[in-house]
Amino acid sequence: MKMDRFHPADDRLIAVYFGDEEASEGDRRTVRQHLHGCETCTWRYTELTAPLERLRRDAASEADEVFTAARLDAQCTKILDRLEDRAHASRVVPFPSASTRLGRPVIHRLAMRWVAAAAAACLLLGFMAGRMLEFGKMRTVPTAPVARTAPITPVSPGLVSDSPVVSDSNEADEATINEIEAAMQTRRIPALAVLDEMTPHLRPEAVMARSMR
Amino acid sequence: MPTASADRGLSDVPEETLPVSLPDLPRPDDESRLAAEVKRLIREGNLPAARDRFSALVRRQQRRASRIAYHFLRDAADADEAVQDAFIKVFSHIDSFRDELPFEVWFTRILINGCLDRQKARRRRARWIISAPEAEPGERAWAESVPSTGPSPEEALLLRERRAQIASAVGKLPERQRTIFLLCHYEGCSSREVSTITGLNESTVRVHLFRAVRKLRSLLGGNL
Fold first, then answer.
1. CB-CB: which of A19, A63, A86 is closest to B1?
2. CATH number at residue B82
């Protein structure tokens, strides 16, 4: 390469600086010889490479300031500790089976399913029986209150004498009306007497209704 | 001039042990021999001895690894974790290490992949997290308030500003250019080593390196 006449380009100078392996040793020697002989190229080479060299030194010193010897020691210890932890990593303990844990015979999974199905069936049967019993009780309910209310009738026997009672339910109605009328007999507030006269009485209305049936 | 790893302590490797099929790659160095020993010890089941030899390997490589991680991540704690993770990964995957290859290249590749993953994760987080408000003009950071025994406050300030400018300029480089520049320039890797680390063609590595230098010169101007 004729370096005396042709000055090497910047990229070529940088390649020499970085020790580019593609450039042959002879080629690099030629560039270096040219640099010795050419002041302009020497100045260019220095201008190109000196800041890069400074940049490299700065970068190295900056990192070394952060990663002091003590910090590197701590880092190494941490790495070895982590390796130690990995060596004694927690192992997976198998879940204890029913036989080893309680000493009971192992129940086959299929049998367990049958047991579950039987329990569900029993629950269903119990529920249905309960419902049926409740239904039976509901059918007998109407007679029970009459039996309980019937003894009320003798409370005011005088008033009941002219009542046209024909059945158990009528008797019960009659007894209720008698009680209401007995309560109304005691008129303690005179101011309401006029109002009471204007109000149709319960008994004639009830008798009329029965005769209409 | 940066020193390429091809020049580093390789003369003591016997010629007959070198693989014939890989004449262009640097010969196994001390680290590679240590890694091969660790691999053998793990295979034999001698874990305490393997860990002991591995600690020697860590001590040889950790300063360089910490520098690389720090230049990538610009955060000491993050870089520390990245280095730790890389060494743990090396120990767990030492079986896949090929004895005839330089350990440094294999390890650097693992470390850089880890750093790039962390950068991606950081960018993802930054999308969702609102940055903390800037300190008040009167307030000073804790690190700045600690008395220094080094250069004067003015010098320290200028140095800090210069470093911030350089870091910002390097940060503006595209990912590939940045990786190549950091490895070639800061760590003195040859373009062949960077090619092995990054999986790129050697000429591509050189092109990216020159572009990175040019871009840095234009970004930093007189500061470079």
1. A19
2. 1.10.1740.10
